Amino acid sequence: MMKSVLFAALLATAAPALADTIYTNANGYTMDSKGALQRFATLVVDDAGKVKATLKAGAALPAGTQVDMKGATLWPGLIDAHGHVMRLGELKLVVDLRDTASIPEALGKIKAGIPAAGWIMGRGWNQERWYADGKLIGRFPTAAELDAVTGDRPAWFARVDGHAGWANTAAMKAAGITRDTKAPDGGEIIRDAAGNPTGVFVDKAMALITRVIPADDEKRLDLVLEKSLETMAEVGLTGAADAGMDKPTWDRYVRFAKAGKLTARIYAMAGGPDNRKAIAPNGPIPWSYNDTLAMQSMKLVSDGALGSRGAYLIAPYADMPSTRGLEITPADKLKTYVTEASREGFQVNTHAIGDQANRSTMDAYAAVPLAERIARRHRNEHAQIVDMADLGRFAELKVIASMQPTHATSDKGMAEARLGEGRLQGAYAWAQLKKSGAQLAFGSDFPVEPPDPMFGLHAAVTRQSRDGLPAGGWRPWEKVSLTDAFAGFTVWAAHADHAETRVGTLEPGKWADFITLERDPFTAPEGDLWKIKVTATWLAGKQVFKRK
Length: 548
Description:
Blueprint: E1 2-4, E2 21-24, E3 27-31, E4 37-40, E5 42-45, E6 51-55, E7 65-68, E8 73-76, E9 78-83, H1 85-90, E10 95-96, H2 103-112, E11 120-125, E12 131-132, E13 135-136, H3 143-150, E14 155-159, E15 164-167, H4 169-174, E16 187-191, E17 197-203, H5 207-210, H6 218-234, E18 237-245, H7 247-258, E19 265-271, H8 272-279, E20 285-288, E21 293-301, H9 331-343, E22 347-352, H10 355-366, H11 370-376, E23 379-382, H12 388-391, H13 393-397, E24 400-403, H14 405-419, H15 430-436, E25 440-442, H16 453-462, H17 482-488, H18 491-496, E26 514-517, E27 534-539, E28 542-547
Parallel strand pairs: 2-7, 3-8, 9-18, 10-11, 11-14, 18-19, 19-21, 21-22, 22-23, 23-24, 24-25
Antiparallel strand pairs: 1-28, 2-5, 3-4, 5-6, 8-26, 12-13, 14-15, 15-17, 16-17, 20-21, 26-27, 27-28
Helix pairs in contact: 2-3, 9-10, 14-16
């Protein structure tokens, strides 16, 4: 049984310790600021919750309260460079369709999870994992299928990647959707042969439905954040970059931070120019509240996702030649948004999945002066399908490739179908990007993928799904070492969040954010990495999770 411990007033009101705390007999690992892996046996934490020293085995111990770690593997707290904090908690409170393997199975879960009143909500469906008679169904679900279990109650289910949604007839009626409804630029309404909406809305067309869904009350949204923080602590995440949030969400984070209730450090990205201006009209908000919260970056969205064929490609989709995907933000606007925000001191982090979206994103960053690019550390979020002509631009332009290893192992079959083998040379190209001199950072894109960073470590070093496929790994030349994967979720992610002087390693002066693991990943078989569980998590020297 697992038990999460969330301490009210964790940081703001905790009583100061009388002395340093000395964690002895640890199997400790950390990167250092020069990028080298270091080993230690003792971690010394001062009464402010910061690292005072790491000591090798046999070193003399300073005075303080000793805690025997009994040989446990001890790592710095892990950092997810790209997640969706509120969506992670929301998944705990709605119908979760991520593990469904067919439409009937999905409908069964929906039927079993219908609430007593209001809209029927959920997320996580993926038509690329749905089978019938042993074959991939190869199509989107329909409103008629959803009607069968939801009746006349409006229902809405977001796709696993958040770039498409599935509505029933009642939801479309509530939104006023008819045959004549036009999709907005950057969006698509999936239609049948007669031109009628079938119930699936892609990217910007999703707003046609979501705008009529009643807003959550504050109490429920607070619960959503609490659930997310609990989940993050359970998997050893002491930090996450929240990839796109609005002003009310920022206000909630501030309220939690002031109360000492943030048990993970949140590097918040404002969702677009309007939210950036609403949240930070006077410029970037640096790390505050004992370094638990910052907002000095803006999230932009260049295109959609591969699963819904919204990723914007240079050439048409191999499995649907009638489309190249969706340009969510036109290239000229993207350049304007990037240069304006950068000039005002903000880091810009742009979602780009298709090769044309990646090209447009790099073109936008190229318009920023070099010194400014270096200072801001602009990021390309996902960088999944990159044309070989653009691969070297990450290092050239000093743009961070913020990538999610589990996307490669989840998407491998779909990517081959969408693009064909000949267009995959720069796909999920971690090793090529690193070799080029580009800076990487790793994350999960939770809840699109599970938040457990051990899943990401496994995918990064094996290029296999968790069932061990394919043998030898998918496009195995893109594997990275376990040391690099470890760095990707620690010091590299901290650097991408402008936090490397505060967290990411267990060097003196940094916050004592750390975890213990049930096994040593550096000695475990690579195929078992995803099975390793976090046994406890500390933030600023305070334990926020213990597995029992």
